[in-house]
Write a structure and sequence with these properties.
By secondary structure, this protein is mainly β. It has one domain. The chain contains five helices and 22 strands. The longest helix has 23 residues. The termini are far apart.
Length: 347
């Protein structure tokens, strides 16, 4: 009997040892980096369910669930840049365009680089890290820094077409499951890890989501052989009350984009944190469903001299930006966006 108890205690100790290794190595990135990603997230998933949020590895992606339902998946392997797709909003509405990840035959096929929810920029030391044309650069996942019950944190390298690292970033995405909305906070620190780096003055970027086609402010109809734009069912409004196409290139604390998905009106708001450089930021928000924060493209937005919006980070230094995405039902008033922004902006 005593020998069986000793064997049972030994077996129990062996079964929990991997979890102890993860906990003791949580502050030592080089230990976690040596573990295979699928094993890391299998172990973390044991304690990942809390406050309605769970994160686990599924088929080479990180699956994020809120209250037991799919919210999004993080694609980081064998991609040009890491991105979230799909993103499921309030009431189960699919908020992101499916193409090019999935060809349903219903979506437009423009701008193939606008994948789900993504962070990218069109000029990093002069290299295009936004589009996927010609000699474009990539953002390559290096390793996960931290995982927890409601957070994904990783380090990534921004590289040229031939693989030369230009700079790095550390991004932390935290998920929330309030009763009436779905939210995520996206914090990214741009690091001049390989010498000086300049995020250049271009409208092409940066913190972005490509929305479902039915939310577009305008749509294209064919009249004989001619194509023309007509009003769509979606709307844009910013914190200063500027609406629809007039919101493009304007500065604002927040912007909300709403429209019909599956027969009901839903929306998403993006908040620019008051401590962000160049707050309130400019917005590259388009009538065709591109919704992006861009603090760099001053030349395009305000017709100032080229380079006016360049942001140079000196070697060894870093710059941090913080944003919040709020997925809600109805328009900006029903979603209480102004009120929620004030809560977000509190010191």
């Amino acid at each position: 009997m005593a020998s069986r108890r000793r064997r049972r205690r030994q077996t129990d100790a062996e079964s929990v040892q991997p979890l102890k290794m993860v906990a003791s190595g949580a502050g030592k990135v080089h230990h976690l980096h040596m573990m295979k990603p699928f094993l890391l997230f299998l172990l973390v998933a044991v304690s990942a369910i809390a406050d309605g949020v769970s994160i686990r590895e599924v088929d080479g992606k990180l699956r994020v669930e809120l209250c037991g339902q799919l919210f999004t998946e993080y694609h980081y392997k064998d991609v040009v840049r890491p991105y979230f797709y799909p993103v499921i909003g309030a009431g189960g509405a699919s908020m992101t365009r499916d193409w090019p990840m999935k060809d349903t035959g219903k979506d437009s096929t423009d701008h193939p680089h606008q994948k789900g929810l993504i962070y990218a920029h069109g000029s990093v030391n002069g290299v295009d890290c936004w589009s996927e044309q010609k000699t474009f650069g990539k953002t390559v996942h290096e390793k996960f820094l931290k995982t927890g019950k409601d957070v994904i944190s990783s380090r990534n390298n921004w590289v040229t077409q031939d693989g030369k690292v230009m700079c790095s970033d550390e991004r932390t995405i935290r998920f929330y499951a309030p009763s009436d909305v779905k939210m995520l906070d996206y914090e990214i620190t741009l690091i001049a890890s390989q010498g000086d780096v300049t995020f250049g003055d271009t409208k092409e970027g940066t913190m972005a989501i490509r929305l479902a086609e039915t939310m577009n402010v305008t749509k294209t109809e064919t009249d004989g052989k001619k194509k023309k734009k007509v009003p769509g069912d979606g709307h844009i409004v910013n914190s200063d009350g500027v609406r629809d196409v007039d919101a493009w290139g304007k500065r604002a604390k927040w912007v909300d984009y709403y429209g019909p998905v599956g027969g009901k009106t839903v929306g998403v708001a993006i908040f620019d944190h008051p401590k962000n450089p160049r707050h309130p930021t400019w917005w590259h928000v388009r009538d065709y469903g591109l919704f992006a924060v861009n603090p760099f493209g001053i030349h395009d937005f305000e017709k100032k001299p080229a380079g006016a919006g360049d942001l140079k980070i000196e070697s060894g230094k870093s710059v941090t930006f913080r944003y919040r995405f709020v997925f809600h039902e109805g328009d900006e008033k029903q979603g209480r966006i102004a009120e929620r922004y004030n809560e977000f902006a509190k010191p």
